[in-house]
Amino acid sequence: MSEDAGERLPCGRPVDPLLDLVTRGRAQPPHDDRDEHERACVHCRALVAEAEDVWAPVRSLAARREVPPPDLVESVMAAVRRLGREPLHLVIPGRRGATRVSVDALGRLAEEAAWGVPDVRVVLSRRSRARVDGATAEPTGAAAAVGVPGGPDGGRVLVDLAVVVSHGVSIPRTADLVRAAVRRQLDALASAPDVVVDIYVDDVVV
């Protein structure tokens, strides 16, 4: 069967209209839209029979019903519930309600604390990131911090900070100073006593 749109059968009938009837399921009973000639002509009937054989697997695939796994809904809902238990904010409980501090706010507080440490020359906000139990999420704020669910006491705060320090200073000591400053800042301003601070020293400058 040629794909030439102008091809005709020996009887003079064009090929394409018959092929179109086959692909639409209209070339045989109970939905037969062929005219009297096409039903009786040996050439038209042969073309339709050949096209039906070729098109049958396609029609079979189209009619197949895909059955979803029986636990699909349960799996999706479990994933949604996990997202609800992993908020990107710190929860501070109170007698009259909980206060939630966003990732951006915690990050800005951490960055501010790092800038106040002597010999920290730059805080690289684009190098910092937020983390939740091993997962990562790019923050929009300067530094990165996230509350990890920890029961009624609020949760643990993880902070990643990338900095550039002065040449000639003790890098471990400077990192410890940054770590201590961030912890004090977040404890004083966001009531986050359990703070883990990872420092990335990306460069030194004279």
Question: How would you sum up this structure, described in words?
Answer:
The protein has helices spanning 15-23, 36-40, 42-63, 72-84, 103-115, 171-190; strands at residues 27-28, 31-32, 89-92, 99-102, 120-123, 130-132, 135-137, 144-149, 155-166, 195-205. With 206 residues, the protein is α+β, with helices and mostly antiparallel strands. It folds into two domains: 15-63, no CATH class; 87-205, GMP Synthetase, Chain A, domain 3 (2-Layer Sandwich), CATH 3.30.300. The strands form four sheets. Strands 5, 8, 9 and 10 form a four-stranded mixed beta sheet that branches. A hairpin with a 2-residue loop joins strand 1 (27-28) and strand 2 (31-32). Helix 1 runs parallel beside helix 3 (42-63). It is elongated. The model is unreliable at 130-154 (pLDDT under 50).
Give the CATH architecture of the largest domain.
2-Layer Sandwich
The domain tally reads 2
Question: Major sheet: size, sense and barrel closure?
Answer: 4 strands, mixed
Task: Give the strand tally.
Answer: 10
Q: What is the CATH class name of the largest domain?
A: Alpha Beta
Structural class comes to alpha+beta
Our Rg estimate from Cα atoms comes to 35 Å
